[in-house]
Amino acid sequence: MADVFISYASEDRASAHLLAQALAAQGWSVWWDREIVTGEAFDHAIERELEAAACVVVVWSEHSVASEWVKNEAAAAAERGVLLPLRISDVKLPLEFRRKQTSDLLGWRGEPGHEGFQALCRAITHVTQRQPAARPAVTSPPQPSASGSTTRPAGSPANPSGKRWFAVGATVAVLVLAGAYLSRDPATGKTDQGQEAGIDIPPAPAPVPAPAPTPSAEPGQADEVLADLVVGRYAGDVMSDSQGSSRNGVVVTVTKLDASTVRVTSPYARIGSLDIPLEKVAGNVVNAGGDSLFMVELSRQPPTLSLNPRGELAYSGTLKR
Of 63, 67, 111, 119, nearest to 89 (Cα)? Predict the structure, then answer.
């Protein structure tokens, strides 16, 4: 089941692609009809994913408001209470959907800090009741209180009284033996009390050196070099540009600066040069900061780069190495 199902008119495919990339970069799983498996019935696949998705984002434009298919998908989502509409152009929505709060992405070029995109992300989090790419919670170890007692994590059961008194008795016994050992005569190995009672305290055993750390079964897995996963030459197209038209045959080169930073360059002046810090989210390598969308989908073979430098244009290319 996907977190987000994107409904859109075929004429808005480039905008839907850009939205899918941006939401995936945030950590959500996204489904749109480009994900249909070859040979699978088109309508059956869409109906299955539409009914299973945690929320449905409908992209309204001058094309989709006239599309019966999009309106039917929006109505199905509204019935389940998971409809999240957005506008990519200044159009009047179909009558039955006008009362629904709508995110405005007019002029949006994929920048993650865009007010309308941020509003959409908040709405997705609210409807799905989960954050993107949620990590398992880490349970903190018990912390000593001011009185020296151990505070239990919330929800953990208290020790039965028998176990509690056993623990206290064991602690007292250890302290007594430790005191006896520290007061022993080094020459005889007897304590003051032991000399009177004729009890021998054996000398302390020699310390056992700690074993050397064992290397992990997969060396380097914990310290994955993200830059090595994405470096290379990508060939593709500029699908949209805030200051111009689309452009085919654009080459983008990604080079390694360090383990988690790359430099993006292109002879196409509108892309120029960018230094990108990297992180891994939901199997993709994405920009860890800044206003430029950068995402390499490692699940695709060959990997695909989606790039939106400074929120000005939308580029998609395939790795050629």
Answer: 63
What gap in Å lies between CA 47 and CA 42, rounded to an integer? 9
The string of pLDDT tens digits covering residues 262-321 is 999 999 999 999 999 999 887 789 888 877 889 898 888 899 998 888 878 888 899 997
Burial (CB count <10 Å: 0-12, 13-18, 19+), residue 235: middle
pLDDT of residue 210: 53
What is the token pair recorded at 63?
Answer: 């094309």
Among 128, 157, 175, the domain boundary falls at 128
**Structural domain count of the chain:** 2
- Decide: pTM greater than 0.85: no
Q: Residue 58 forms beta bridges with which residues?
A: 7, 85
Residue 138 in any domain: the answer is no
Distances (CA, A) of 269 to 12, 25, 272: 26, 25, 5
Q: Of 103, 67, 105, nearest to 89 (Cα)?
A: 105
Q: How far apart are CA 258 and CA 274, in angstroms?
A: 14
Neighbours of 205 (CB within 10 A): 6
Do 119 and 11 belong together in one domain? yes
Q: By residue range, what is the domain housing residue 278?
A: 226-319
Q: How many residues does the chain have?
A: 321
Checking if the pLDDT of 67 tops 50, the result is yes
Checking DSSP bridges between strand 304-308 and strand 293-297, what pairing results, if any?
A: antiparallel
